[in-house]
Amino acid sequence: MFAEVIIDIKNKQVNKSFDYIIPTYLEGILHVGCRVKVPFGKLKRTGYILKTKESTEVTRGLKEIDEAIDLKPVLNEEFIKLAEYISIHDFSFYATSLETMIPQALRMKYEKTIKWVTNSLDESLQKHFKTKKEISFNTIPKELEPILFKEIKLGNLVIDSRIKRVRKEKYITYVHFNSEKVGIPSSKKGMDLLSYLEEINEDIDINSLMNDSGYSKNVIDTLAKNGFIDLYKKEIEPEEDIKNYIDKEVSLNRMQEDVYHSLKLGNEKTYLLHGVTGSGKTELYMRWIKDSIHSGKEALMLVPEISLTPQITAIFYARFKENIAVLHSRLTISEKYEQWKRILNGDVKIVVGARSAIFAPLKNLGIIIVDECHEASYRQSNNPKYSAIDLAKIRSHTYNCPLVLGSATPNAEDYFRAIHGEYELLSLPKRANGRELPKSIVVDLREELKNGNRTPLSNILKEEIIKCYRNHEQSILFLNRRGYSSFVQCRNCGEVVKCPHCDISLTYHGKTNTLKCHYCGYQISNVMKCEKCGSDKIRYVGSGTEKLYEAVKNILPEAKVLRLDTDTVAKMEDYENIYHEFKEHKADILVGTQMVTKGLDFENVTLVGVANADIALHYPTFDANQVAFNLIEQVAGRAGRAKKDGKVIIQTYDPNNYVIECAKNHDYEGFYKKEILFRKASSMPPFSEPIEIEVIGKNLGETKKEAIHIANALRGVSINSIILGPTEAYIFKKKDLYHYVILVQAKEDIVLDKIQYIYPLYQNNKDITISITRKWL
Ligand code: ADP
Ligand code: ZN
Ligand code: ZN
């Protein structure tokens, strides 16, 4: 027997499978979806079996599988196809896509034990194991393997896969990469470990880190001692409190009732549920999920990570009891693994989780729901660069089940599809409790300047904040920029202090009295004199959340003000602390970045201030207007959710911009009509499907040369496709690397094929990095 194997070579794209001989003792044991160790080049590599077969066309150099990692498949055919789709459609690595689909625990070092009924073994074998009843797989003498596996096939031996170091503890130590630390570690090992941490880009528990990277506790401790990483302990929270929550099912209102009945289970339609903030979408999701369960099927619901608050978790647990697995980032690796096994075994019927929950191994899906479907976090930005919504469509097709995309502010692309019949549009134009959406006032910041007000708060906003505080109500102030001021400039010569490694200005942080680069973490103490002309007239331009916080404290020194941004929230726990404090009205005012715009449901909030609505408008992306509109509308939706009316104050230098006007009136349709005209005029999605190829390198000339080379190669095979660039990226230099961008609108398959070959072409090139991204959802 032979196996087609996809080989995992870290950070390399090997999307072609290789044939290997299945050793006879593993025949009938290794199946599609099992992982194996195979010889590849000089090394042993992990591989995934895509197919087993009785013949091969390979005639020379055929090698044998070395070792079985799994004796039961960890991936089924559905996921293998899904990974293949990601590798082709999203220009990602096949092996990395497969790896993403299995729980982290299974990716760590494995250990298997064989238990056997002693009597069933023949004597020659028994004498090898006289002393033990169980034996670790890894210590079986090679020559005994064939005999042992024969026994397994006969059913005389029981095999048990166990994961090392996965156990329940009260505390787990987590490692947090401190991106703000200046300098580099003195040891090579320390540097390697740091770049490893930077690459995985999330906090990781210390055991997995040691397992995955192979570095010792010593290296980690040294890094922690020198401030490159932080170690913190996380208590494994008891789920008891959550389970004590009492749920009551409300009766649907007329609008909800209509929408509820419009959805039909048992077909693969995509529904766009456009419902204003607070319109009761969650209640509908839960009804449909219940119906799906009653029809004997399963349900999958995706939410943005930040919405996975204990609150929503509690509601779902209360309603669905043991039937549900909630996958959130507070789970430990072993808990995630437990949940995965429960899902795989069919013990749970409902899965709620963030982006990666799209890979939940449910086998009988009856409905898929994606809440807040406009959220960019449904796309993974590093390899494999899949879109969870895209994959949700494929799974909905596979299971012939409906997909519901829910949002108060759908992306123009999705609304376009709904209007043109590709999706079915369902609308909830009013709030469920009958409250009006909050009234908005637009404040022209140019007038404030004219009147000599240079603080981040207009006079109207100041008055409203004070009024709100006096009424014992809470307010939320949103500003899309952290730090104190956005940049520092010399009044005499105009020089702006920039990051030496990046093409952007440094941000002043008042608390630490430092200037920081928000891209690479570079940090210096605040400058007193201009580097260029020596003048000491330094000006702090623009405002960040720190300055906004200070301005609020200035007008209301007695109020309790909280700040919510990445400077105050290093980990999920911090977020939850701030969340609870505000929720329980232990604080009056919440100042923060995007984090305050998402999904928060505080009943006592009656005022929302958007400190500068223009920041998001000026990003050089085709959907900047959409993102700005969404942000304003979402944060506005935090006001007046319960018994009292809400009010929104939008501060802007551009009050006549359609984004601001429509957001003021909560006029999604009006916004959409303007936005879609703009998209059409500029040939942007949904009227095109751009692919962005980034060419990144240290040497400017070399990087540019390669970028031109790639663009020309694409032009060489294209007749109708549009290939723009290379041009310098919006932020041309980041972390000492130059970024060139080529934008492709592929109209021919040959152009797509050519793009597929770019990664392999550069994978041995140490100077150039390629990053390919589909720019539409
Ligand atoms: P959305 O997800 O659309 O923002 P939610 O589902 O969170 O809205 O509902 C907002 C609030 O309205 C919640 O507190 C919810 O319990 C309540 N609600 C939902 N449906 C009804 C209803 N039919 N009658 C009364 N209250 C409702
Ligand atoms: Zn100067
Ligand atoms: Zn920088």
Automatic annotation (TrEMBL):
The keyword Isomerase applies. Residues 262-428 form the Helicase ATP-binding domain. GO terms for molecular function: 3'-5' DNA helicase activity; ATP binding; ATP hydrolysis activity; DNA binding; zinc ion binding. Its EC number is 5.6.2.4. NCBIfam families: priA, PRK05580.1-3. InterPro entries: DEAD/DEAH_box_helicase_dom, Helicase_ATP-bd, Helicase_C-like, P-loop_NTPase, PriA, PriA_3primeBD, PriA_3primeBD_sf, PriA_C. Zn(2+) 2 binds at residues 499, 502, 517, 520. Its cofactor is Zn(2+). Binds 2 zinc ions per subunit. It is an enzyme of class 5 (isomerase). Residues 523-692 form the Helicase C-terminal domain. GO terms for biological process: DNA recombination; DNA replication initiation; DNA replication, synthesis of primer; double-strand break repair. It comes from Anaeroplasma bactoclasticum. Keywords: ATP-binding, DNA replication, DNA-binding, Helicase, Hydrolase, Isomerase, Metal-binding, Nucleotide-binding, Primosome, Zinc. Belongs to the helicase family. PriA subfamily. The gene is priA. Initiates the restart of stalled replication forks, which reloads the replicative helicase on sites other than the origin of replication. Recognizes and binds to abandoned replication forks and remodels them to uncover a helicase loading site. Promotes assembly of the primosome at these replication forks. Component of the replication restart primosome. This is Replication restart protein PriA. SUPFAM superfamilies: P-loop containing nucleoside triphosphate hydrolases. It comes from the Bacteria.
